Amino acid sequence: MLDHWLSNSKFKESYEVFVQKLFKNKISANQLTIIGLIIGLLSAFLIFLSGIIQDYFFQYYLSSIILMGVSFVFDTFDGPIARSEGSTEFGGVLDIFCDRLVEVSIIIAFVSTDPIKLIYPGLASLGAMVLCISMFLLSGILTNVHEREKSCKVIPYRKGFMERSETFIFFLLIDISFSVRLILIWILALFILITALLRLIEANRIFNR
Known about the structure:
Number of helices: 9
């Protein structure tokens, strides 16, 4: 929802101009995507370390939060640069791959901090994510060529209940509120599942009209 709202707000244009001034002709969109991936994986690794090395728990815990935020910021940089350079199919595929890899790694890292309690909500979150990305990909692939060109995305999609921004906010809350991770990860799984179901309902409405 937040992604859709931001993409239609006045903030988007100003932000894209800022990002293009900062990075255009200096670094490619794909390179920004890879940097975001590396930082996101480092965040996941630090979450994992915070669960097994108690002597440095606070340092790893704080660093993971900071790097998670930095990773998300870099994830917002590649879009404006890709649009200014001319988006490519590989760039879109790479972006989806990196986003999902970071998300899966972070969920696994959360579970590793207390596997006995968090294994089931963690598995539920990963399962719901599979359903959600399946609906996302199938709906995008079946969307007509005109809409694809209009959206400037390799795989176009409509707004969802749980998009990239909401997922990041939840990850950040889970990372910060380690004492209630069990509840928050269950809620995350539920929200992702709701998103998958809403995309299925939306697909039924679009393709049966």
